[in-house]
Design brief:
Layout: E1 8-12, E2 18-22, H1 25-29, H2 41-45, E3 54-59, E4 78-82, E5 89-93, H3 104-116, E6 125-127, E7 133-138, H4 143-155, E8 166-169, H5 181-186, H6 196-207, H7 238-246, E9 252-253, E10 261-272, E11 275-284, E12 289-296, H8 302-316, E13 321-326, H9 329-344, H10 358-367, E14 373-378, H11 388-406, H12 429-434
Parallel strand pairs: 9-14, 10-13, 13-14
Antiparallel strand pairs: 1-2, 3-7, 3-8, 4-5, 6-7, 10-11, 11-12
Helix pairs in contact: 8-10
Length: about 425
Amino acid sequence: MKTKTQGQRTVKKPDRSYRLVQDLREVNKRTRSRYPVVPNPYTLLSKVPPQHQWFSVVDLKDAFWACPLAKESRDIFAFEWEDPKTGRKQQLRWTKLPQGFTESPNLFGQALEKILQAFSTPPRIQIIQYVDDLPLSGEDEVREATIKLLNFLREKGLRVSKGKLQFVEPEGKLIVCTPHAVRNELNQKAEKWLTDSRMLKYEAILIDSDDLTLEVNRSLNPAQFLYGEPADNLIHNCLEIIQYQTKVQGDLEEQALSEGEIIYVDGSSRCLQGKRMSGYAVVDGKNMQTIEKGKLPSNWSAQTCELYAPKKALEYLAHKKGTIYTDSRYAFGVVHTFGKIWEERGLLNSRGKGLVHEGVILEILEALKLPEETAIVHIKGHQKGVTPEIRGNNLADQEAKDAAENGAERVMLILTPNEEKLEIPKFSKAEKKEL
């Protein structure tokens, strides 16, 4: 089975490293799920005796990749990868349990449970298992028990993440997944007669009631009392979460940076004497000199040209810091909001069809990873004035029009997954031996 090329992407982690992920939603749809063996967090925490005062939490590194994948199942997770620099395509497949597969946590949890059966737990020590995390607790210091567990895991070929290891601490932190009843209530479908406008009216009446007060419910599950009194500080900031979920890159800003390069970009597509002409320009905002400009295919729309221009600017800012100014609301929205949403939807619109500018969008999402730090700022176009922003934007607009009219003809082709013919991966004997 072969997945689409855009299904393989690198996700930037908080420590600035990258994680390779694969879109396995189609595989997951065709997978008959087993009964989940991941324990309920409340049941899990209830196993920790209240008198235990010392904790260690062992986080296994690349846990799923410690489980070899059966040879007859490897073709299911095959995919094609194209080198963005050389354009060379390779057909690859997973030989280990892949991330993104719905059954990976269950399969790994069962394998780890069998391995831990051979471990001799010291007296008065409690070890619990939650996917690839192993919390360890005891009344007294758990240093010797933790070292014994680490040595045991090493003998079994499992690696531990040093950066995430919590070693002999009075408090232990464990990240768990738990359902939220609030989300179920918000997603509950109303009856057919209850329209959105009528629902809004009822909510307004409810909130304006004098005898009604909205308060935060502080009811707790009994297992949460193991941690003592609930903290008064907020668990998270909603605005920060929304910003994180809509940002393509964590270091991408909407306001100009205080340092680095200053770039103005623009794309042009207009009809002159019955013939459409398209082009782009990238201008240095410090010395008002053109960095790059060129002619684009005549069948490109204005939006496509507006997307292509900041993509070239991002490539110019590779491993640098800089601010890019554009007068295109569409390009600004793609890099700051729409691109992340479309990427999570598999580059499909609300009707389930492929995007018109899918190829350019994929390229600009990849180009956003190149600069060390960047800001893409929207500026109003076609203004009169002498400020640096107005001068730079007008110069980029003029240079883009000149490139479209007088530039050398360029033949460019951007393929989208809908245009590519997907083939079944074929491996030679040498490749099969390597896999």
